[in-house]
Write a structure and sequence with these properties.
Layout: H1 3-6, E1 47-51, H2 56-67, E2 71-76, H3 80-91, E3 97-101, H4 107-121, E4 126-129, H5 145-166, E5 175-179, H6 183-186, H7 192-212, E6 218-224, H8 238-242, H9 256-267, E7 278-281
Parallel strand pairs: 1-2, 1-4, 2-3, 4-5, 5-6, 6-7
Helix pairs in contact: 2-3, 2-9, 4-5, 5-7
């Protein structure tokens, strides 16, 4: 059976014209509030900063980190309604929260955001480079120079700029986590530029881990498979959204809450002997590398 014939409808066909996508119009709503996550103090006293933390995987990780005792700051582009929901979910755990609007692909934004967090809370312990965008195209010739530059600026440059801004404030025991993708390993014919950025982030993870190991700072990545987030209905056609995730062995897309524990593991001391690695959370696809 081919992947195409294996596809089945999993949700109503839907598409959002606004990018980045919004959570409220999604049907069904994503599971992104870490409702089933139970913390045990693994990040008590720590400060976590997440790019793209307003919704989806970023939101789930932010709330899970707060449940582990961390104060959480996050950077978001312009999705104020989603950001306010995430703020409320974090503060409901009893931890402090900061939401900072701005374009992660601009170095001044990253510098300003990090200074804001350190000024407010006096430290920075975990940096999660999660913000990303994608723009499917049928052919490589349809990818304009503007799209190529924009995708790399958000996905790759943003990770560089945020890490550069944060590094002077990170001490021994700190953790940097990068969200890469299954597309970096198996490719994606309609997401050429996006896949290329995620491959670059895999190389960045490994190289940065070697560069910082002597400082006692660990660098790892998580490579999600298909996950039900606002990115999906805002970038794919309605019928593709209806069957999104149906071709993986588990026959469904993952939920953001199912990704959060992998990030928490890499953020806390449980992974003290792990650096330069990628965790694959993808519904059962066997990936080399």
């Amino acid at each position: 059976m081919t992947k195409t014939s294996a596809k089945k409808k999993l949700r109503p066909a839907q598409h959002q014209r606004t990018r980045p996508g919004r959570t409220r119009p999604m049907r069904p709503q994503p599971e992104d509030s870490a409702a089933r996550y139970h913390g045990s103090g693994k990040l008590t006293g720590k400060v976590v900063f997440i790019s793209g933390g307003d919704s989806g995987i970023g939101r789930a990780v932010a709330v899970a980190a707060a449940k582990e005792g961390a104060d959480v700051a996050f950077l978001y582009r312009e999705e104020t309604e989603d950001a306010n929901v995430t703020l409320a979910l974090i503060t409901a755990t009893g931890q402090r929260a900061l939401a900072i609007a701005g374009d992660v692909g601009r170095p001044a934004t990253c510098t300003r955001a990090v200074k804001h967090v350190v000024r407010a809370w006096g430290r920075l312990d975990v940096v999660i480079n999660n913000a990303a965008e994608q723009h499917p195209q049928e052919n490589i010739g349809d990818i304009t120079p503007q799209q190529l530059e924009r995708t790399f600026r958000t996905n790759v440059f943003g990770s560089f700029y945020l890490t550069q801004a944060a590094l002077p404030h990170l001490k021994k025991g700190a953790s940097i986590i990068i969200t890469t993708s299954i597309t970096a390993y198996r490719g994606s014919p309609k997401l050429l530029d996006y896949s290329a950025t995620k491959g670059a982030l895999c190389a960045l993870t490994r190289s940065l881990a070697l560069a910082l190991v002597g400082k006692g700072i660990r660098v790892n990545a998580v490579a999600p498979g298909p996950v039900w987030t606002p990115l999906i209905p805002s970038t794919f056609p309605a019928q593709a959204v209806a069957t999104f995730g149906s071709t993986v062995p588990m026959k469904r897309a993952g939920q953001p809450d199912e990704l959060a524990p992998a990030f928490i593991y890499l953020a806390c001391a449980d992974s003290s002997y792990v650096t330069g690695q990628t965790l694959h959370v993808n519904g059962g696809e066997i990936i080399n590398g």
